[in-house]
Amino acid sequence: MELAPVPESSSSNPNYDTPITINTHIIGASSSSQMSASPPTPSRYENQKRRDWNTFCQYLRNHRPPLSLTMCSGAHVLEFLRYLDQFGKTKVHNQNCPFFGLPNPPAPCPCPLRQAWGSLDALIGRLRAAFEEHGGRPEANPFGARAVRLYLREVRDFQAKARGVSYEKKRKRPKQKPNNNALPPPAAATS
What we know:
The protein has helices at residues 24-37, 44-62, 74-84, 117-133, 146-163; strands spanning 90-91, 113-114. The protein is mostly helical.
């Protein structure tokens, strides 16, 4: 909607070209009062990050001996990831299992359920961000430790072999340019 200029008249307003404004202060006041009444709801990612952070902090409190966040290292993060494996839902076949390397095994087997690599990778990403949001220095972030990165790479590679699933990065396809020189399809002969 385009605002019309004030008509030129012999009014006391010397600014003839000033656009008309329609109650912007009233509209702004009502929308700002609505925003202050209800704070924006956190995103799904923010909620998950908060839950993951609380779970990790609880793990540190229950650790024997209890650990403070400042004493936490990459080794403690690895302990936490191994602890989480007991709650996993992804079947990861052992190397001596007859279904090792099959993406869809034909029968059940006694191999353990583990956390999927993708879940662990996303978890570490959220915890790494949460650590810095809670005042941690990026260079002291235990979730970015080299040992954690190597562990995630090993889990990814082993699960890829054990489950017969490829975790290769998907490459972006180059955008296809429209071909203006293309001839239209030949018309069907009507006889």
